[in-house]
Amino acid sequence: MFKILHWIVVSRSQVLMELLAGRWPQEFLVKLSQVSPDEMCDQIKDNQASMVVIDLSTVDLQKAYQFQRLLARQHPSVRVVYIQFPKLVDARFLMQAPTTAGVFYLDAGLTEISLGLSNILRGHRVIPIQLVNGVNDDFGLYEDTEPLTIREREVLQALLSGSTNLDIANQLFVSESTIKTHLYRVFRKIGVSSRGQAIAWAQTYLHDVVV
């Protein structure tokens, strides 16, 4: 007798969930549950899921990172799979946890994802070669620079709201000089020389959720 596995899909997209529900339960003998990104940390506490699929088109990268760390601490046997993985932003920090089992880019179709999941169920990790090598060859945004840290992303996101250095310092509970240091590093990493250029870059490349 086959055991029915339980997978959780973290996404705001009902359309995506309907597509997956029409395919994966029969293909992999699994029960699918959809969880909102806002509720994912609470829902996972008592859940016995064996895999969590995170839709990064509707989940903020920082929240996904925090959620994965929570899973690694509380449910280290649960495997994490990212779908709709962005190409225009370096999100390799999400793969630092040993729980990351698979990554599928935005342009990956359901057939490609299903083939990858079959390999994951056999104990393999399915990660694009560009990410394994640490280089995103399709866009090359970070070939010669370091990826942005979580805190640097927070500072850059705060710039988008029009916050001053002092405002950002108060929001993040650090000194204004610390914010200036973060901004200097951000400007160097993304190759800009002014706040206006940094804001323009962030508007194009900084992956964030629009609710």
Automatic annotation (TrEMBL):
Keyword Transcription regulation recorded: yes
Alphabetical GO biological process terms: regulation of DNA-templated transcription
Keywords, comma-separated and alphabetical: DNA-binding, Transcription, Transcription regulation
DNA-binding in keyword set: yes
An annotated Gene Ontology molecular function: DNA binding
Domain HTH luxR-type: 141-206
InterPro entries in UniProt: CsgD-like_REC, Sig_transdc_resp-reg_C-effctor, Tscrpt_reg_LuxR_C, WH-like_DNA-bd_sf
Coiled-coil features, chain-numbered ranges: none
CDD domains per the UniProt record, alphabetical: LuxR_C_like
Name of the protein described by the UniProt record: Transcriptional regulator LuxR family
